[in-house]
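Re: weekly structure request thread

Next one in the queue (180 aa):
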Amino acid sequence: MNKSCKVIHEVDVKHLEIIRQTINDLHRQFSEFFDFDRFLILDVAPEIYKGCKIYFKNASVETLDINPSSGATYVADLADCAKVPSARFDLIFCTEVLEHTNDPISCAKSLNRLVKDGGIVVVTTPFNFRIHNPLPDNWRFTEHGLRLIFKAAGFSRIELTEIASERELMPIQYITKLYK
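Done, posted below.
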């Protein structure tokens, strides 16, 4: 296996474009409804990509990343981010992060702890996509696994949408909207 993830197949290029477009569309859609003063958003691990900040002009956006050189508001592992205040955020974006974690259930519990009552968490995860950076890339979640993880984390409502691929029962990506 190529551990550096340098060889990219044309399907991966296509799927990456779809994944990134899906995330941009989510940011844009949510900004149409929630871009107002005193609305606080957490963007988890926006890394080198543009993240949600460019879509929100009035809401406040804070970031969380495990990378100390990321410039994030909070530098912490999502699975253990006790220094981030509880029930602080109205909306949390956690896009293409969960597959890189070592403990996805603890991460889901952290997301539940960080979002306010009545808040929303939006999680995207790849399914039919190659192993990718930043390494490690530990997991691929089915819709059944995502429901189990977020139910165990205590979310009251879970909505899943799949982004279909060329192969039946092999979606490119899942979008999970979680309500507290």
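The CA atoms of residues 98 and 127 lie 11 Å apart. The chain has one domain: 10-166.
Next request, please.
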